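Predict the 3D structure for this chain.
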Amino acid sequence: MSLGQTTFDGKELSDAKPFLKWAGGKGRLLDKLSKFFPKSYNRYFEPFIGGGAVFFYLNPEKAIINDLNEELINLYNIIKDKPEELMKKLDNLQAMVNDKDFFLDMRSKEPADSLERAVRTVFLNRTCYNGMYRVNSDGKFNVPFGDMGNPRLF
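Done. Predicted structure below.
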């Protein structure tokens, strides 16, 4: 598996929050972890971004984020480069968040277009069981439907 990477230089993130649920997320630990963060630094490096709780908390001026999960890095790139298009497509899918058949259909697709891949990643993350990300030995997403009430896609 290749290592994905993206950079953020001077982007305004002050109001941004993690937009995915991610196993091992640090969001609930930030108060305890923050005392260990350096007071200043030139550039933020994140080897395994996941949901990005520390990244969004620190709001770095310059950052390089990485992850082994190519779908996740694709999503960060789309959020950086095409946020309006992503939100519009997710808005159009909001009515489908409780439709298990639609979820299974979305889960079975493998879109080639990077924007559609990002839409799929968010939709599956927000509607699958407990926001997990897991793939089988063929690399296919295989987490079951979550039946989580009425989750917001963004």
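Helices lie at 30-33, 53-58, 70-81, 83-93, 100-108, 114-127.
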